[in-house]
Amino acid sequence: MLVKDIMTVNVVTINQNQTLLELQGLMSDDNIRRVPVVNDAGMVVGIITDKDVRMASPSEASTLSRYEASYLLSRIKVKDVMTHNVKTVYQTADLADVASLMYQDQINSVPVLDEENNLCGIVTDTDVFRALVDIFGLGQYATRITIDASDKPGVLAEVAKMFADQGINILSCVTSETKRPGEKEMTITADLSQVGMGIIEEIREAGFNVTNITTGRAK
């Protein structure tokens, strides 16, 4: 799955020379919390969040009136508060790449660029989580079977053939590392409502260790 498949394409932006008062109104009108910042040429030069605005705004304990507070916000430029070293990804990047970037840099949104380095979208942690739900088939009523499998060629094909022989459609299959050398954990999500649980016994008879079986819809 690529970033362009999960990103928000109609991106609201703000110029770096606009004020925090303008930004506050923009965020309120469009109900958004993160805004990419662009220069006069339209190139991404930063990103700013509602948290940045709150940190730069007068405290609620302040004796300033609403008008005085608004005046102060009208004097602060976006470029004075924004994050300058903004991380970006290309729209053709893989979901795993953007998830790794967000995790390693502890950020919750990333502007997306096209091949000409123009802003074409934004991807957030919510977009990534939603994509993972789709990949794991968690939004559907299904059975998730987790097995230990040898980390060698042909294992996935062997397991998939068992499902195919019984006419069972695999909704998703995800492998992950284990602490045991030479082994991986494989989680298969499939709809067994019409065929029963016989496939699980077949998997065991083939020599695989079934470690978990969960049926239902993820909450």
From TrEMBL:
Domain CBS, chain residue ranges per copy: 7-63, 82-138
Signal peptide positions on this chain: none
InterPro entries per the UniProt record, alphabetical: ACT-like_dom_sf (IPR045865), ACT_dom (IPR002912), CBS_dom (IPR000644), CBS_dom_sf (IPR046342), Diverse_CBS-Domain (IPR051257)
SMART domains: CBS
Keyword line: CBS domain
Name of protein: Acetoin utilization protein AcuB
Pfam family for this entry, one: CBS
Residues in ACT domain copies: 144-219
CDD domains on file: CBS_pair_AcuB_like (cd04584)
Highest taxon, organism lineage: Bacteria
This protein's record includes keyword Nuclease: no
